[in-house]
From TrEMBL:
<protein>
    <recommendedName>
        <fullName>Extracellular solute-binding protein</fullName>
    </recommendedName>
</protein>
<feature type="signal peptide">
    <location>
        <begin position="1"/>
        <end position="23"/>
    </location>
</feature>
<keyword id="KW-0732">Signal</keyword>
Length: 384
């Protein structure tokens, strides 16, 4: 009950400024919108917010649960999708000038979706460390942000899976769209990334441990990457002894984990487009973002300077939001001869990570590893 009262007071304060752009747009009467949301509690909060802001269109929002299966066409008026799927659905989506009271971190914006997609949440790997182990490994808090200070193999957890290797390997690689299979992964920049990965692996004496992917702290590791949705399950989290930061840098070069963003997209055949636009603007108003924060365990997309505008009681949740600012989107550049294949497919659906890992362990030259990855990727694309 207290939350509902709080929302009503907040909405009355914000309705004149946050959503003022919609005041000049006549919303359709007797509208009825089916809206997918990430969970029912969040959906109920958005319905309450809508009814407060738009009493003449009260009860226009009808919440449905997402089916968690990708479908290119729309089944509902407004759907909850991730940014990669949104690219595929764009043909069937309504385009309009989406406004946002709070901007999304620039590294997590897809400019090709700016008129179609309203991102709310980020999911991906985040860098975490255990504060009780600072003394064990003789590292100070102001040294954590530089990998040069990681002198013990147990200071950074590493395994042979893509979600652990890719941020270290490809943070400085941004392939162009429309590359030919003849040229795939043959750029000098890609070769440089292989050499840097080799150097990092051997200089830091990384252990290739595939068994403790989500509980590596219990095995004595000081830090590593964890899926954002797993962080709150860690034993150090409840005692506030686990901390989340952007990935450390090395030689002044930053590293960026990959992330998916999730949010809303409107069916172009929606019979109530003005109401749909008002809803899309509402969800990134101050009250809309607060509704997400109050009813989700995920990481909301906010620039770090805007975090103080919101009621966030969990200090580590604030750390996750700030750390997500250092993440990057998956490359969705397409292969020229096979436009349905994207770089993300090559990273996650093929064996190129294994080729890299085996080459590094065998101490092959970076050029040899590059040629092997190129030949394998070209053959894989041809057979799809």
């Amino acid at each position: 009950m207290k939350k509902i009262v709080w929302y009503l007071l907040l909405c009355m304060t914000l309705s004149s400024c946050t959503l003022s752009k919609d005041a000049s747009v006549e919303l359709e009467k007797h509208a009825s919108l089916q809206v997918e949301v990430s969970n029912k509690a969040y959906g109920k909060a958005l319905v309450s917010l809508w009814n407060t802001l738009y009493p003449e269109q009260k009860d226009a929002i009808h919440i449905v649960s997402p089916d968690n299966c990708f479908h290119q066409q729309f089944y509902h008026d407004i759907e909850w999708v991730n940014d990669c799927d949104a690219l595929s659905k764009r043909t069937y989506a309504l385009a309009f000038d989406i406004t946002s009271a709070y901007d999304v971190p620039s590294s997590l914006k897809r400019t090709s979706l700016e008129d179609y997609f309203q991102p709310i949440e980020g999911k991906g790997m985040l860098f975490v460390y255990a504060q009780p182990m600072l003394d064990t490994y003789s590292i100070k808090e102001d040294e954590i942000s530089d990998f040069m200070n990681y002198r013990n193999p147990h200071m950074y957890y590493y395994n042979h899976y893509a979600d652990q290797i890719l941020p270290l390997w490809l943070s400085h690689y941004d392939p162009d769209s429309g590359v030919s299979m003849e040229d795939i992964f043959m750029e000098d920049a890609f070769l440089d990334c292989i050499q840097q990965m080799k150097d990092f692996y051997h200089e830091h004496q990384l252990e290739d441990d595939p068994y403790h992917a989500t509980n590596f702290f219990t095995q004595g590791y000081f830090s590593g990457l964890l899926p954002s949705q797993e962080i709150k399950k860690q034993p150090y989290y409840a005692s506030q002894q686990l901390h989340i930061k952007p990935m450390p840098s090395l030689d002044e070069q930053g590293y960026s984990p990959y992330a998916d963003t999730y949010g809303f997209m409107v069916n172009k055949d929606c019979p109530y487009p003005n109401c749909a636009k008002a809803f899309m603007n509402m969800v990134r108003s101050k009250a809309g973002i607060q509704a997400y924060l109050d009813h989700n365990d995920g990481v909301v997309l906010l620039q770090k300077e805007d975090i103080s505008d919101f009621h966030i009681y969990d200090a580590l949740n604030k750390e996750m939001i700030q750390a997500m600012n250092g993440s990057r989107l998956w490359s969705m550049g397409a292969i020229k001869e096979k436009p349905s294949i994207h770089y993300k497919d090559l990273y996650l659906k093929t064996n190129i990570v294994s080729i890299l890992q085996n080459g590094i362990v065998a101490n092959k030259s970076a050029k040899t590893i590059q040629k092997e990855i190129h030949a394998y990727s070209k053959a894989w694309c041809l057979h799809q």
